[in-house]
Amino acid sequence: MKQGDLIKFFINDFGSNGEGVGKYGENYVYAPFVLPDEYISARVAYVKKSTIFAVAKEIIKPSKNRVVSHCKVFGKCGGCQLQHADYATQLEFKRKVVKTNLEKIGGILVETEPTVPSPKQWEYRNKVQFPVAEKNGRAVVGFFKNDTHTVVPTVTCPLQGKWADDMAAAFLAYAEQTRTAPYDENRHTGVLRHLIGRCINGQLLVTVVVNGDRLPSWRILVEELKKRFDDFGLYVNFNTAKTNVILGKRTEWLYGRKTIESNADGIKFFVRPDSFFQVNFDVMRLIYDRVKQAIREHAVEVLVDCFSGSGVLSAGLYQEGVKEYALEICPSSVADRSYIRASIDRTTRWLGRCKAEMTRLNSLEETINRDQLLFGIGQGGIYKDMRIEHIKAVNEFDLPGYAIGGLAVGEEADVMYDVIEAVEPYMYKDRPRYLMGVGTPVNILEAVARGVDFFDCVMPSRNARHGNLFTSVGFMNLNNIKYMLDDRPIDPNCDCEVCRNYSRAYIRHLFKARELLAMRLCVLHNLYFYNNLMEQIRYHLDCGDYMDFYRRMVPVLGKRADD
């Protein structure tokens, strides 16, 4: 069996990504956009051991559940996988995915109830994100082709309402009039990166993501939106990073309404562009009804909403007689001064209580470990005067180490570096200095250059679980289609167990098959890379040539791997 061969076989089931799965001889075959009970002719795309990946060429015997898709770009756009199946088949597929994951990943054997259908099958989404690209010298919006960053141009999606089409039309008219260039991800040129909209009850919030420090001629966009909408607001988000992350860390309001007011069962929500809110409002209500029913049936007395965000879930689940606790606090570093002031005062009081309690515990005979280290954490957001004032207050507790907290939570990287430079002269030189929750390899190199000693961060493992890897030649996203047949290791210069034994293509295949081994292997690599980077940093500090190492490595580790 080789690439290009034409084979015929039956589809027996769905794969985890909605692709059809069958057998050809002793080999399993995966093919997208086909259904169980279909007999197909397919062209072999590639072969990995006993697994064949193929593309259907002819549906010789179609399934009774096959339908014609409502979408003109279905199969090209990467947004949907099952629009060739009737709605009942889609619901059953989702039920089986839940059941399989509970059994395979969680080890939980349970009967899974049928999937509750949405009251609206079409035009239910209240949010849309359009990447912007250039085609034939003009700006276009659409959606990414599957496993690529190639934009499939379209302004119409059957899952979204007409409002999304009109918003896209206004934006394209603006881009045409102003000749504002779309963003080019490979060259890091152009301005317009993404168009994002959310519309509830006729209230529209539009956000344009730009590569730069302004949205050129934005009043023209306002005028185009006025032709199509009576009630809207306009925001701009600034994202100048060489990344495929959609939003930057700073957003500014430009015009019109600032929030969407939404009412659910008598509870009023105020939704901002950066707020989490369910994209299917009707299904959200169904979820709340089901959970409320379960609360009553099980006589729940206390409900804890962890990581509650704005409290949408806990507010929606409120019932008389049930105590609710919504747990969430992580002020943005760019919050207003009064909020930051209250936060640092609370931190100082808490530190005093912690030191007193540690002193008491260390005085007891039964205390086992009297050598634990208590660090004081300096806060203050992006306000340098408050930062300096607070680190001076923390110094007075005479602790074995000190930390810089509250950064990397909303501010630009350069702002974080400026804050470190402002605070560092006021920190003890003979005690360790800890930067909390940071960061990328470049963040670490920059912080060490400014006097920071150690770090903690979920980034190497969190990014790895999504296929985002750090290498000696830059960062890479292993989900990119260009790695599908790439037999090289993740990093040819790395000697970790993963790079010695597995190829990029194999690990990418594991991600596409939703095998947990993919995440595990990538986490191992990223952790090894970080440990090795820290070893190099210590070595060059000892040698006295760290700044040379820093200047050499920052441009390399801060870019996307070219290969």
How much of the sequence lies in strands comes to: 15-25%
**Rg from Cα:** 27 Å
Q: Helix count?
A: 14
Query: What is the name of the CATH topology of the largest domain?
Result: OB fold (Dihydrolipoamide Acetyltransferase, E2P)
The count of DSSP E runs of length 2 or more, i.e. the number of strands, is: 22
Largest sheet: 7 strands, mixed
In the sheet with the most strands, the strands line up as: 8-7-6-9-10-11-12
Question: Which regions have little confidence, pLDDT < 50, spanning 5+ residues?
Answer: none
Describe this structure in words.
- With 563 residues, the protein is an alpha/beta fold.
- The protein folds into five domains: 6-104, Nucleic acid-binding proteins (OB fold (Dihydrolipoamide Acetyltransferase, E2P), Beta Barrel), CATH 2.40.50.140; 127-258, OB fold (Dihydrolipoamide Acetyltransferase, E2P) (Beta Barrel), CATH 2.40.50; 267-328, no CATH class; 337-363 and 373-455, no CATH class; 459-557, no CATH class.
- The protein is 33% helix and 23% strand.
- The protein contains 14 helices and 22 strands.
- The strands form six sheets. A seven-stranded mixed beta sheet has the order 8-7-6-9-10-11-12, with helices on one face.
- A hairpin with a 2-residue loop joins strand 21 (468-471) and strand 22 (474-477).
- The longest helix is centred in the last third of the chain and has 28 residues, at 516-543.
- The radius of gyration is 27 Å and the shape is globular.
- It starts with 5 loop residues before the first strand and ends in a 6-residue tail after the last helix.
